[in-house]
Amino acid sequence: MTSQEESMISSFSPSLWALARKRLARDAIGLLSLLVVVFFILMSLGSYFGFLAKNWDQEVAINYAPPTWLATNQESVSALQAPIPPRSQIDLYGQTDPLAPLLDELEAHNPQDINSPPDQQKVNHLVFGADKWGRSVILKTIKGSETSILVGLVAALVATAIGTVLGALSGYFGGWVDDFLNWFYNVFTAIPYLLLIFAIAAVLNQKGVSTIILILGLTGWTGVYRLIRAEYLKHRHREYVLAAKAMGASHYRRMFIHILPNTLHVILVQLSINVVGFIKSEVILSFLGFGVPVEVVSWGSMLNEAQNELVLGIWWQLVAAGVAMALLVTAFSVLTDALRDALDPKVVA
Amino acid sequence: MWSFFIRRLLQMIPTLLGVILLVFFLFNWVGGDPAYILAGKLASAEDIANIRHQLGIDQPWYWQLWIFIQQIATGNFGDSWATHESVAHIFKTRLTPSLVLLIPMMIIETVTAVCLALLVAVFRRSMIDQSLMVVSTIMMSISLLVYIIVGQYLFASLLGWFPVKGWSDSLWRDLTYYAPLPIFLGLLVSIAPSLRLYRTFILDEINQDYVRTARAKGLSESRVLFKHVLKNAAIPILTNLLMGLPGLLTGAFLLERFFAIPGIGREIILAVERSDFPIIKAATVYVAIATMLANLLADLLYRYLDPRVNLK
User: Which of B10, B11, B146 should one mutate to test binding to chain A, selecting the residue with the greatest count of A CBs within 10 A?
Assistant: First the structure.
C-alpha cells in the first residue's frame, strides 16, 4: 500500500493510532504525566551518556551537609583541620614498626605521598544537602534515576519481548505448542513473584545491573504472555489473516507482520505496567542488597543509606529518593491508564 | 462437581512437576556447586569431596532429582546450611508470627477496601470518587520502603507510640503491642490496589439491568447496594482474597525484616543472604503447592457462589 492510498483511507476512517493520539491529546492529566515520564527518561539518558551528574561522586561538602536553607553557618570549611604529622613523630609507645623499612623505601620513591593532600575547601551546605561522604544528594538522585529507570525500561523490554513471542506462538499455533507453553506459564505463576525473584537472586549470587535485568526480565513475562495469547487466539481466524494465508504469507509473516500490529496496544500498556513494577522491584532488591553492587547508586541503595540517617535527623536523602520515585511511578501509572483509555476503542471518547 | 475437583487435582500434577524441575534446575545447574559455599574459604579437596558425597551431588542427576522429590514428599529437607536447624522446624516455628501479622492485615484490608469501594462506586464520577482515586494512585506510587522507614522512625523512634521492633512469645502481646505498627504500615500500601480493583468489580455490577430493576421497584439505595450489588460483587472479591492466601505463607518480607518479626518472610531473606539453599528450595516448592491449591479452592468457591458458572 502506498502512502497516498494510506492517507486516502485514513482520511475517512482514522486508524486506531490516530484516534488514540487524538484522545490522548485531549487528556490533560495524561499529557502532563507523559511530560513527567519523558523528563525522567531524558534525565536518566543524560546521566547515562555523561551530560548530567557526571561529577556526582565528588565529595564537595562536609559529610551530611544540610540543605542550604537550613544551614546556619555559610562559611566554607577546610577539610583538614590539622596537618598530618610526619611518620617519625608518631609515638609508638616503645614498639618498633615492623613495616618501617618498607615504608621508608616507599616514601623515598614517592615523596609526594608524605605531604598532606592539597587543602580542599568543603562547603558546609548544599542545595539539597549532602550524604555521608559529602556528595550532593541532588546529583546522586539523578545518578540513581539512571540505574533505576534503565533497569526498569530494559527489563520491561526483555520481559515484554519474551511474553509477546511466547504468547504469539501459543495463541497462533495452538495444539501441543499451546499446551506446552501454557504448562510453562502455569509453572512460573505457581511460584509467587517475589519468591521466584529471591530464589533466582540466591542462585545467581552475583550483584550487577545485568543480573537484575536478567532476573526481572525472566520472571516478569507471564502477564504479557497471557494477554497476547488471548489476542492471537482471537485474531488467528479473522478474515484478514485467512486472506494473508490465501496469498501465501508464511507463518512468520502472518504472526508478526499481520497480527502483531493489531496487538500493539496491548503490548504498549503491558510494557508500561511492567516498567512501573520493575522500578519498584529494583528498589526493593537493591535495598535488600540483592540488586545493584555497592559502587552503583540507585534509589534503592539511597533508601538503604537513608534508613540509618533518619535516626540522626538527616532526612534529605530519603526525601530526594522517595519523592523522585513517587513522582515517576505516579506519572507512569497515570500514563498507563491514559494509554489504556486512549487505545481502547470501546471507550466512548 | 467431584469429577471437576478430581480432574483439577490431576491437572496440578504436571504443573507441580514443572515447579520441581524448575527449582531443581535453578539450584543444581545455575546455582553452582554448593560444596564450595558450605566448605568455606579454606577447604581442602577432601572436604569438598566429602560434602559433595553427603549432599549426593556426586550422584547422577536423575538420582539427585529423585532425592529432591523424596524430600518434597516427606517434608524432610534436611538441615539449614547456615544454622543447622532442621528446615521443617524452621518453617513450623516461623509460621505463627507471619500469620499473626498477616491475618489481621488481610481482614482489615478487605473490610476497609470494600467499604471505600462501595462509597466511591455510589459517588462515582463525583469529587469523592476522583479525589479518592487520585489519593490511592499516589499512595500506591510511594514505595513500601519509604512508608516503613518513615513510619518506624515517626511512630516508634520519635513519638514512641509503638515499639521500634521486636516480638514476644505471648500471642496477645504480639497482637496488641508488636504487630499494630507493621500492620498499619502494610495497610497503607495494600488498601489502595485492592480499593481500585474492588471499585471496578462493583462498577461492573452497578450498571447491570438487575440493579435498574431493583431501583425501579422502589428499593432503597442502601438495600440495592448491600443486598444486590455487594452480593454479586462478592464473587470476584472472594476469589481475589483466596488467591492472595498463599501470600500469607511467604509473609511480608520487608515488614518482617524491619520490625525483626521472626516470620517466614524474614527467614527467606536471611536464607538468600546466606545462600542457604535448603530453606529457599523448600519455601519455593511448598508455596507453589499452596498457590495451586488456593487457585483450585477459588474455582470451587466460584462455582458454589455462582451456579451459572459452568465448570468443564
Answer: B146
CB nearest to B22's CB, from A187, A311, A333? A187
The CATH number of the domain holding residue A319 is 1.10.3720.10
Of A343, A261, A345, A332, which is closest to residue A20 (Cα–Cα)?
A343
Spatial separation of the C-alpha atoms in residues A169 and A171, rounded to whole Å: 6
Q: Kindly state the average pLDDT of the residues A259-277.
A: 87
- Pairwise CA distance, residues B21 & B69, whole Å: 10
pLDDT 10s digits, B297-308: 888 888 787 777
Same domain, A48 and A90: no
Q: Are residues A145 and A37 in the same domain?
A: yes
Length of chain B: 312
Given this model, what pLDDT does residue B41 score? 66
Interface contact B146-A322, CB threshold 8 A: yes
Three cell numbers written together for A233: 487466539
A175 touching B, CB under 8 A? no
Are residue A285 and residue A308 in the same domain, yes or no? yes
Q: Of A101, A124, A147, at which residue does a domain stop?
A: A124
Determine contact: A289 vs chain B, CB below 8 A: yes
In three-state form (DSSP H/G/I as H, E/B as E, the rest C), the secondary structure along chain B is CHHHHHHHHHHHHHHHHHHHHHHHHHHHHHCCCHHHHHHCCCCCHHHHHHHHHHHCCCCCHHHHHHHHHHHHHHCCCCECCCCCCEHHHHHHHHHHHHHHHHHHHHHHHHHHHHHHHHHHHHCCCCHHHHHHHHHHHHHHHCCHHHHHHHHHHHHHHHCCCCCCCCCCCCHHHHHHHHCHHHHHHHHHHHHHHHHHHHHHHHHHHHCCHHHHHHHHCCCCHHHHHHHHHHHHHHHHHHHHHHHHCCHHHHCCHHHHHHCCCCCHHHHHHHHHHCCCHHHHHHHHHHHHHHHHHHHHHHHHHHHHHCCCCCCC
Global pTM reads 0.81
Point out the residue among A183, A191, A303 whose CB comes nearest to the CB of B288.
Answer: A191
pLDDT value, residue A1: 45
Q: Buried b vs exposed e over B181-200: b needs ≥16 C-beta within 10 Å? A: bbbebbbebbbbebbbebbe
Last residue of a domain, one of A76, A105, A124: A124
Residue B210 to residue B200: CA distance in whole angstroms: 17
Higher pLDDT, A90 or A270: A270
CB contact under 8 A, B284 and A191: yes
The total number of structural domains that make up chain A: 2
| A104: pLDDT strictly greater than 60 | yes
Q: What angle do CA A171, A173, A175 make, to 5 degrees?
A: 95
Whether A28 and A175 share a structural domain: yes
Out of B149, B257, B280, closest to residue A199 by CB: B280
Structure-model confidence comparison of residues A86 and B21, the more confident one: B21
Q: Let me know if residue A63 belongs to a domain.
A: no
| ipTM score of complex | 0.82
- List the domain range (segments joined by +) for residue A167: 15-56+135-343
Q: Tell me whether A190 touches chain B (CB under 8 Å).
A: yes
- Indicate if A146 and A240 belong to the same structural domain: yes
Determine the residue of chain B that is closest to A195 in CA distance.
B284
